[in-house]
Design brief:
The protein is built from 7 helices and 10 strands. The chain is of the alpha/beta class and about 220 residues long. Strand 1 and strand 2 form a beta hairpin. Bound molecules: adenosine-5'-diphosphate and magnesium ion. Magnesium ion (MG) binds next to helix 1. The site of adenosine-5'-diphosphate has 10 residues, from helix 1.
Length: about 220
């Protein structure tokens, strides 16, 4: 079985309090994972480790079979393979195009290639033609789609989504759900946290359920 991530005895604490304790977890490439659990159960903490943004206090994280070394030189290529989309993403005051192109610019992807990727990403989120709109003048749902486009334009191997449907209207959430479900087939592994107890069933994929920072068995099927 091909392995993308492996977590081994991962612990994360704030002060004296352990907020994440995962003995063993294997995530496979090209898979959709829904990460569920109550508020404070450690979902965002787990995503920040998977995004290589915050090291565990102890334990070992493997990515693509190799142990992750938590120093900047080793982390740079890993961080480029993974994109984390926050729950309330920040759009700066500029055009939709420049917001979506932002990450590409940082990676020195310019010109035709940048243009192609921005257009394709906007198409995927249903915002073709929005290039010249002011990002700050968009509705909440549109802004969330622009943030998703900015993540998709990077073509990450792994897309980590922190409650992507929390603040969006019904139509946007239906569109984003359909998109998210299609990504594993395009080779992107998706790990998304959700509060919606229907999501794991509706979206398919595999369930990771956290209770007080520990892996727990699958949720009982919704009644
Ligand atoms: P979730 O995303 O499932 O709601 P989090 O991963 O954000 O949970 O938080 C897990 C626990 O860690 C919570 O009890 C939270 O209060 C605590 N926590 C998260 N970040 C910090 C921090 N920077 N400092 C102190 N405690 C934190
Ligand atoms: Mg959270």
């Amino acid at each position: 079985m091909e392995t993308l991530y492996r977590l081994s005895n991962i612990r994360k604490s704030y002060g004296q309090r352990t907020v994440l304790a995962i003995n063993e977890l294997v995530l496979r490439p090209g898979t959709l994972y829904t990460l569920t659990g109550a508020n404070g159960s450690g979902k965002s903490t787990l995503l920040s480790i998977l995004a290589f943004l915050s090291p565990p206090a102890s334990g070992e994280l493997f990515f693509g079979g190799a142990p992750v070394r938590w120093n900047n030189a080793a982390l740079l290529p890993l961080r480029r393979a993974v994109t984390l989309l926050h729950q309330s993403p920040y759009l700066f005051n500029g055009s939709v195009f420049s917001n979506v192109a932002y990450g590409l610019k940082l990676r020195a992807i310019r010109g035709d290639e940048q243009h192609r990727r921005v257009e394709e990403a906007l198409m995927m989120v249903g915002l073709a033609g929005f290039e010249h709109r002011r990002a700050r003048e968009l509705s909440g749902g549109e802004a969330q789609r622009v943030a998703m486009a900015r993540a998709l334009a990077l073509g990450p191997r792994v897309l980590l989504l922190d409650e992507p449907f929390a603040n969006v209207d019904r139509d946007t959430s239906a569109l984003l759900e359909e998109l998210v479900v299609s990504l594993p087939g395009r080779g992107t592994t998706v790990i998304m946290t959700t509060h919606d107890p229907e999501h794991p069933d509706r979206l398919g994929g595999e369930l990771i359920h956290l209770v007080a920072g520990e892996l727990a068995g699958p949720l009982p099927a919704a009644a």
